[in-house]
Amino acid sequence: MNAEIIAVGSELLLGQITNTNAKFLSQQLAEIGINVYYHTVVGDNKERLIHAIREAESRADLLIFTGGLGPTKDDLTKETISTHIGRPLVYDQAALESIENYFAKTRITMTPNNRKQALVMEKSVVLPNDYGMAPGMLVKKNKHAYILLPGPPREMQPMFTSYARPELLNILEKVEKIESRVLRFFGIGESTLETELEDLLIAQQNPTLAPLAGDGEVTLRITAKHESEAAALQMIQQAEEEVLRRVGEYFYGYNDTTLARELAVHLKKHNSSIAAAESLTGGLFQSELTDVPGASSFFSGGIVCYSNEAKKELVKVKEETLARYGAVSAECAAELAENVRRLLGAEFGISFTGAAGPEPLEGHPPGTVWIGLSRKGKETETFKLSLSGSRAGVRKRAVKYGCHYLLAELSQKT
Amino acid sequence: MNAEIIAVGSELLLGQITNTNAKFLSQQLAEIGINVYYHTVVGDNKERLIHAIREAESRADLLIFTGGLGPTKDDLTKETISTHIGRPLVYDQAALESIENYFAKTRITMTPNNRKQALVMEKSVVLPNDYGMAPGMLVKKNKHAYILLPGPPREMQPMFTSYARPELLNILEKVEKIESRVLRFFGIGESTLETELEDLLIAQQNPTLAPLAGDGEVTLRITAKHESEAAALQMIQQAEEEVLRRVGEYFYGYNDTTLARELAVHLKKHNSSIAAAESLTGGLFQSELTDVPGASSFFSGGIVCYSNEAKKELVKVKEETLARYGAVSAECAAELAENVRRLLGAEFGISFTGAAGPEPLEGHPPGTVWIGLSRKGKETETFKLSLSGSRAGVRKRAVKYGCHYLLAELSQKT
């Protein structure tokens, strides 16, 4: 079976948004052994959409559409396909109720055009939308299957994995399984990783190894094909062991995890606890940590001490420390980490102070970062970083380094 | 003139990377008045690439290719187009020298396949690569123009803006300027906005109005075409005035701004100051506010009070309040906002408390949010929200609502 992914939306052709849906769906389809030979993007225009559908029908068995299911006039995916394949639209009672409930709950008045979202093609499998109003659908006609998904990724992604993917697995007659696993690394550059794995990267056929750098991290996707899922997984396992034998010290987790998420897992596992005092990062570390469900088991709270007054009054940094060393200093980072740990009665205290940019701070160039790490019963450590990039980039990478140091410290307990 | 953007690379069809090049080029082309009706992605496969080229030639004047110009065997864009349009490849001396210099400089041994990158089509305009080795090219044949660009964005983007764009402006017989402006709205749904603007949306031709929903916000892109830039801007201005006359109360800013950024601008303008106590949002509000350069002029710090102990000890919420009303309550939100405002000596205090999910909290379903808003000399207000979506989505939208309420309050000062 091979598929074509068709994104519908003039905003894509105007460069207003990026087609991230095609990437997500391609990954998902590869995992279940469906080949993707083309992506197409077409605007909110009926004639051009029909042209794209005909073209895709000539070369693919499965057509997956994203976008154009909403309530407004330029949302025309469903109507166009309905006409094209001759399947009239009918109201889906469950979808209609779910839309009415949504408006009742949010207390927004429901305008009539919202009912349009509950229209589905006759004899289609309705795909519920758990994060929005417009349902998706899967419909088969002659030799083709058509899947219609909403445009917003936070609606489309769960709809695909929860509802469309199981339907597809039912349709597939024979599956050559494509399994893949992403290994995530922090603290190593892409070119160093490539050098360490050079012979493996040159010799690769099945499994394949694909390194990718981004956001200060490097990932390695290992992909194996085999008729047997177990055999494919075994091939991945072997490749992974060889990779980790060489660069395992930089490895921190699999697939879509993040450093903050791994830190949360390890803090829970160790029945540990943490508090934070953030100047440079302004709450970003604590925000990422509490994005993990169940964070309350290891995190009680912390301080955002942006000004020197806040550092003194809320975290009791000594006046003398600030006067003598400044806020961008090992001494200030150490006091912040230690004091916030005591203040919240936690096992760990971490602090972030520095110059995020674009202007220098206290004579330190943008990207100068001090991280303090205090652990009950141990001497407080400090780490200095010189990061490049934008203000937002410096802050994000500082948080990643903080998680990285904490993970290293936690691993010493086991 | 209309264009089609064709990205070549199997890594795109496997979902390993996102086609950000199409977004960049679409924006660039819109700016110089070239319509884009389709994006296509095709793999490193000669037959399928030829199929995509033929299809694009049937519907576009200008074909822009990204990717497939590198040294390896699967880089076949140049070779395929050369055969297809019958323009043989010849060595470009300048490109060859630049490649040899690159290897000499990095002291890496130059493998023979790298010479391949210096091949260009006869009678083409060579586009230098200032950030990599493979040059691009522009070639005209019959009624079509073909532009070949490298795949990596950091090579492609400067090549397009420095070399391809000026060539395109030369080719264009008459330049019709396309200007556009995005208006951002919060607190109004896409369907309500459309209902308010229905007659404008139906009548639209030039300028066009395109509403788009995402992340709890709605944007409206106004796009006008005219030979004179000033006239196009004037058309946008008129459309904007009519739009704002109807839904101006929900408007908060232009183009790529955010609610947090607008809040920062207004806090600065009013010489005001703010402090925050965050439970539900765990530091996200403060993190977004301090992502704006110069935040120290209106923000000194705040508290992340995730546990009830932290609410009591760090923000002095009364034991009785928590016992009687719980943490997810108007009473708790009000005390948090008022107390943190006093603690930091700020004009405004804001608080976020609630159930982010996935589990209910104190019997309240996920998405239940209380926001407290305290202003010096005024009675503290509280707002209740019932949000749907993921944990991360609830937290993000709660922060947006907080900014929205503060912006409304600040606008009352003027």
TrEMBL record, chains A, B:
InterPro entries attached to this UniProt entry: CinA, CinA-like_C, CinA_C, CinA_KH, Competence-induced_CinA, MoaB/Mog-like_dom_sf, MoaB/Mog_dom
Q: Which region is the signal sequence?
A: none
Superkingdom of the source species: Bacteria
MoaB/Mog domain location: 4-170
Which Pfam families does the entry link to?
CinA, CinA_KH, MoCF_biosynth
Q: Which HAMAP family does the UniProt entry name for this protein?
A: CinA_B
Similarity annotation: Belongs to the CinA family.
Q: What is this protein called?
A: Putative competence-damage inducible protein
UniProt organism field: Bacillus thermotolerans
